[in-house]
Amino acid sequence: MKKTALTMSFLATLSGFASPDINIYNGSLLNQFSAITKKGILVYKNGRKKNRIMYSRKAKTLHNHIRFTSDFFNDEFAYDSWDGKGSPIHATYNASRFAILDLIGLRQNAAWAKDRFIFGAGKRKGLDDMEKAIDVVAHEYTHAVIDHTSKLKYEGQSGALNEHFADVFGSVVNQLKNPDLSNPFLIGESILNGELADKHTALRDMMDPSRGLNAQPSHMSQLKTDAEFRKYGSFCVPSRSNDKCGVHILSGIPNRSAALVMSKIGAREAAKLYFNVLTSLSENSNFEDYRKAMLKECKEFAADTCYYVDEALKNVGLVDTQEIAEVTETHISEQSDI
């Protein structure tokens, strides 16, 4: 029997998973290159203060957002903790508060760093309060889930799918936590401050990818017609300077299709569909593999689901054509960030 999201959730109920431990660290003194302060100072664990001097309300907020996200994956998909094995969760906030310790640019970022989650201290006139944005928290949590399911390589189209799924579940969790959102397809809306907030609506806009902090394409044709996106084609060699061949840029295409699907079938039902698609893909899957998986997995849902999926894919140019390019392979990045 195929383990759909529904049957997996039922199995989770029978097995009675215990919630994983959640350890929250203050990263004011965090130094990724020091074994002593690699995570920061433990200040909050499973809802209890562990260090009253270094504790702040941000710790409780981050804990609660991680707990909500972890419970969501457990309840819906029988997926226990970030690795599916119930492992403890380690998350650091206030990272790189002091510039001298911001050795790799974490202050205005959030990241899944292969064994822990890191949320930067932020800047009042830039990106700030990452731990307060549950969509950002769920986005990073999903990167960990991806690392232990499909393992989508963080470069080119596979990396864009990695970012795409992180945004999908960031949006889903945000909608379930805040059902009255005026626009449920904005990612990181609340973390923009100062001029960034004046000029941009959100970090990313799934429904209208051109309106995010960095403009994204919303149709496959733009990868050929727009100079700013052509550089991420099949000739691109992934590097940090080109965002691993546009993982945060190319994700705009599947993001728009997901927003269209979600607007028709709802967040919770969409979550089941996209989890099934995510777990059916593999390390080197590209947009064509994604298209085929979407059209296959939609058959497990209500009769009109495949119609909505097909229309959404066509809307962004994800059709049966060889124009959907693959990207050359290289090594995997050390961390997945926002």
Description:
The structure is a single chain. The protein is of the alpha+beta class and 338 residues long. The chain has two domains: 128 residues, Elastase, domain 1 (Roll), CATH 3.10.170; 182 residues, Neutral Protease Domain 2 (Neutral Protease, domain 2, Orthogonal Bundle). Helices cover 41% and strands 9% of the residues. The chain is built from twelve helices and nine strands. It has a seven-stranded mixed β-sheet, covered by helices on one side. A two-stranded antiparallel sheet has the order 7-8. A hairpin with a 2-residue loop joins β2 and β3. The N terminus is likely disordered.
Defining key terms:
7-stranded mixed sheet, globular, 338 residues, two-stranded antiparallel ribbon, disordered N terminus, 12 helices, 2 domains, alpha+beta, Elastase, domain 1, Neutral Protease, domain 2
The total count of helices amounts to 12
**Shape assignment:** globular
| CATH level 1 class label of the largest domain | Mainly Alpha
Task: Describe the sheet with the most strands.
Answer: 7 strands, mixed
What is the element string, with H for helices and E for strands? HEEEHEEEHHEHEHHHHHHHE
Query: Any idea what the CATH architecture of the largest domain is?
Result: Orthogonal Bundle
N→C terminal distance: 36 Å
Total domain units: 2
Range of helix content: 40-55%
**Rg, Å, rounded:** 19 Å
Return the structural class: alpha+beta
Question: For the residues shown, what is the average pLDDT?
Answer: 87
Uncertain segments are 1-15, 323-334
Strand order of the largest sheet: 3-2-1-4-6-5-9
